[in-house]
Amino acid sequence: MDARKSWRARVVRAIHVDAASRPETQALLSVDEMYARRVIDLAMRIAEALIAVGAAANEVTLSASRVTAALGIKPVHIDITFNSLAVSYHGGEADLPFTLIRVVRAPVPDHSKLQQLQALVADIEAGLELGEARARFHRIRRTPFRYRPAVIVLAQGMLAVGVCLLYGTSWMMAAVALLAAGSAALTQRAMARMHVPFFFSQAAGALVVTAFAAATNWLRTHDVPLFDDARPGIIVAAGIVLMLAGMSVVGAAQDAIDGFALTAGGRILDLALLTLGVVIGIVGGVSLAQRLGVGFPLSTAPPELGSGVAQVAGVVVIAVSVAVWNGATARTILVSALLASIAWGGYSAAVAGGIGVPLASGVGALIASFVGTLIAHRLHVPSIAVTTAAIVPMVPGSVVYRGLLGIVEAENDPTPLLLAFSELLQAGAIGLALASGASLGLFLGAPVRDTLQSVVRRRGRIR
């Protein structure tokens, strides 16, 4: 009889959960309300600053949670919805809950400040006191952008030079691209001072670049010396890369994969509108050039790349330019240049393997993101900073240009119109591949990085 009851008890335990086996709910320690508010306020301000400098939503949530937990305030609930941030805390049944809400301004990448904020969160976890943490945060918040506006404009111009190097153009074409990109950047800065929405700034910048390309084409058709072998399409492609390089494609894809649907949706819609602004500027400029008799030569074949040395030089110049544009430190700039070279090598090998440009772009972004995740923490640089700079050389500027030019040239002929739309679809596929590859690299690299760190810590304790 006892054996039967014992057997029955084992069966019941195998099917049902024993309530007595559950851990008892521990009483939350009483926390001073003013102290809790100060901690929540600090976490809120750090989270707001992280969003403002371009961090992904998941990183913002984790950082705020780490700050509150390290300072003894938990559990805390954090909600991010693209342009607003809410942090809630309920100490216990006898305490009144309270919630802080902030509206976040549009993100402007500042990877130097992002690096300082990440270091502050790590130091708080290591035992930094609340008062010192608040003082240090205010010093970080008041830190100006690392580079002067003239340096940023020069970096934007050098990005276009990097694209010209990538395609092996002449020094004259590189000089024209530098002037075109610099003029577009100055135009956008002037419109920003007048508080013009960035959608129109994108269109105006693209129109300026197209005007330089049209002037170059006019000089080429009139046999002006030094412009005999001019390639105006490369100038437009460089301008497109310039306009698209400042968009947070990686952050938007990462938010979508991490489950922050509202934030990802807002960022993706923002990206779509800004890309549409570039399209309007390019199409308007090309159409105007045609009416003025300086239309662009249409070629369905992709432009030829330069020599291997020229490609590496172009990739490095582009990555360094993007890193400076985003306010990166010297260490981040060096890592970005190295990572861009590695990513371009993976992309070139994949293209040579015949898997197609979109998949090859995803492979290059995956390599850049994975390697960047492994080395970023070790070198104390933001992984999103080096990844963003490394994938810009693979942005499909020339593909977008060919598609838009084909639409303008097609008029009422359906065959060229379909070919043009196929080019734009390929550009969209490349963009999705870049975003997906970068996000997948972050996802795969994080557990490998954590494993390597734990192995290093264990070896250190053994020694």
Q: Keyphrases for this structure?
A:
463 residues, mainly alpha, three-stranded antiparallel sheet, 17 helices, 3 strands
Report on the structure:
By secondary structure, this protein is mainly alpha-helical. It contains 17 helices and 3 strands. It has helices at 2-15, 33-52, 57-70, 111-125, 130-141, 149-166, 171-193, 198-221, 232-245, 249-258, 261-291, 308-325, 330-352, 357-379, 383-391, 397-410, 414-462, and strands at 76-80, 84-89, 98-103. It has a 3-stranded antiparallel sheet, with helices on one face. Helix 10 (249-258) packs across helix 17 (414-462). The chain is elongated and about 95 Å long.
What is Rg? 26 Å
Number of strands: 3
What is the H/E string?
A: HHHEEEHHHHHHHHHHHHHH
Helix coverage percent of residues? over 70%
How are strands sequenced across the largest beta sheet? Answer: 1-2-3
pLDDT averaged residue by residue: 81
User: Structural class of the helices, strands and pairings?
Assistant: mainly alpha
**Count of alpha/pi helices:** 17
Strand residue percentage: under 5%
Distance between the ends: 58 Å
How can the largest sheet be summarized?
Answer: 3 strands, antiparallel
Coarse morphology: elongated
How would you describe the oligomerization state of the chains in this entry? Answer: single chain
Low-confidence stretches: 25-29
